[in-house]
Amino acid sequence: MEAVEQYYEEVELPSGGVFYSNIPDKLHLRPMTGYEQDILTTERLVKSGKALDMVLSNCLKEKIDLNELLVVDHAYLLFKLREISYGEIYPVKIKCPDCGKENEVEINLAEALSNVKEPDILSEPFEVELPSKGKAVCVFPRVKHIREVEKLSKTKGVEALPNFVERNTTALLSQLITELYLPYVKDELPKQEKIRRMFAKDIAYLRKFINTKGAVFKPEFSFACEFCGHEGMMDIPIQANFFFPDVE
Ligand SMILES: [Zn+2]
């Protein structure tokens, strides 16, 4: 095992680790081996959504509870693992949103991984004043919150990660809000009910607050269509070759 020691790379988390008590602020990742590839091809593990967790746990030097990681740190670790294992170039096929033609693009993961913003808020829980003069006391999204929401929806595994927060706002908010006061809703109602009755404006504000005031890691790249010239930032898609590249 000692020989593998030198292949660990230090990873600084987007959050800087400031919200953790049981997770060090710097972690160490090593490249995937054949053993991890086997895990990713074991259908039973992939279907149950456990494969990626096992792979990430294996490749991390520190034994941590992945469920306690912030979603942003978790996503960062997965992209970092891809970079460490196969290098920074990630070739993908992207359908142009404008002309619909398929482009072959080489995404530079090192560039994407540098697109990180440190958190503005440094302690939890934090209070957010809403546009309606209501107040929400919240924490930032962790993997365990996503898992709770996953139980209610059908999305699982890798493809769920980067855009998950966008697609399941209210279900996720009920995981993140610890206390809620709304001037337009009876205060004795259960939290779940209050969240359901929140004004859309308050929800949008809170969502934006949570998405921007914590650490931010946006796996994006700048797309330029070679057929029609369309340009814009796009989310980096996680395609089959993310963890199984065709080595040329
Ligand atoms: Zn195009």
Task: Give a description of the structure.
There is one protein chain. The protein is an alpha+beta fold and 248 residues long. It folds into 2 domains: 2-116 and 217-242, no CATH class; 120-214, no CATH class. Helix content is 35%, strand content 20%. The protein is built from 10 helices and 11 strands. The strands form 5 sheets. A 3-stranded antiparallel beta sheet has the order 6-7-8. The chain has a two-stranded antiparallel ribbon with strand order 1-2. A hairpin with a 6-residue loop joins strand 10 (220-224) and strand 11 (231-235). Helix 1 (34-40) runs antiparallel to helix 3 (51-59). The chain is globular, with a radius of gyration of 20 Å. 27% of the residues are buried. The mean pLDDT is 89. It binds zinc ion. The site of zinc ion (ZN) has 8 residues, from loops.
Q: How is the quaternary structure best described?
A: single chain
- Largest sheet: number of strands, sense, barrel closure: 3 strands, antiparallel
Beta fraction: 15-25%
Q: What structural class do the secondary elements suggest? A: alpha+beta
Give the terminus-to-terminus CA distance.
Answer: 29 Å
Mean pLDDT: 89
Please tally the β strands and state the result.
Answer: 11
Contiguous helical run count: 10
Task: Report the helical percentage.
Answer: 25-40%
Query: Order of strands across the biggest sheet?
Result: 6-7-8
| Integer-rounded radius of gyration | 20 Å
Which cofactor or ligand species appear?
zinc ion
Overall structural domain count: 2
Specify the overall morphology. globular
- Which residues form runs of ≥5 with pLDDT under 50? none
Order of helices and strands: EEHHHHEEHEEEHHHEHHEEE
